[in-house]
Amino acid sequence: GLFQRGTWFFSSHPEVELEAVTVHVTIQDFVADVVSELVFCNRQQVSKETMFIFPVDSDTVVHTFYATMGDTRIEAMLWEKEEAQQLCKATSDMENLRYLQNQWDLWGPVFACFLGTLPPNREVAISLCYVQELSLKPGGAAQFCWPHELFPQRKYFSRISSEEEMSKNLHFSICLKSVHGVSHVTVNSSHTPLQYKDPDQMSAEV
């Protein structure tokens, strides 16, 4: 999520409100290619120095990240942990890199990027793209999970009157492809019927 610098990554709620999420997932056999956009808004009347944090593991690789605040676009340069630590040592005057290195052990494996100051009542749109190897489940199924840390918290939708209105801010589209065919899909929320894109049922969308 998007956090104010100085708050802990594992606090119960992010410091900056997540307003909307759009996620497009293409699953080819057991690899998911994820393209997501997250819109955050600073609803408080003070500016916040912000940092985006996304949990990763050995099966997840972030390949594209950029953030847009008004006319400003921030694009990440992706480094391996060891390379980032070497850069930090070589540029000891870069406070943000030192801060990330000092907190690394507390956070665990994460993708982190400083975004600068977000003024009051201003939005930042974050585009995050990654690939993830999915584990094999019983029956030959692949399971994809959107990280729970990136779901909007209910308290941030207090001004929205119903669950139906809240769901308008969450949009997922999933494309499934397999040379073995797509038999069915199970989603733990309301969704459209599975639609096959070819007569061989090797490609489908929901």
Describe this structure in words.
- The protein has three helices and 13 strands.
- The chain has 206 residues and is mainly β.
- The protein has a single domain, classed as Immunoglobulin-like.
- It has an eight-stranded mixed β-sheet with strand order 6-5-8-3-2-11-13-12, with no helix packed on it.
- Strand 12 and strand 13 form a beta hairpin.
- Pfam families: VIT (PF08487).
Number-wise, the strands total: 13
Cα distance spanning the termini: 26 Å
The largest pleated sheet is described as: 8 strands, mixed
CATH class term: Mainly Beta
Tell me the number of structural domains. 1
Q: Helix- and strand-based class?
A: mainly beta
Rounded mean pLDDT is 77
Strand arrangement, major sheet: 6-5-8-3-2-11-13-12
Question: Quick summary of this structure?
Answer:
It comes from Eurypyga helias. The protein is mainly β. The chain is 14% helix and 41% strand.
Helices and strands in order:
Layout: E1 2-4, E2 17-28, E3 31-41, E4 48-55, E5 60-69, E6 72-75, H1 81-90, H2 95-107, E7 110-118, E8 123-133, E9 136-137, E10 141-142, H3 163-167, E11 170-177, E12 195-196, E13 203-205
Parallel strand pairs: 2-11
Antiparallel strand pairs: 1-4, 2-3, 3-8, 4-7, 5-6, 5-8, 9-10, 11-13, 12-13
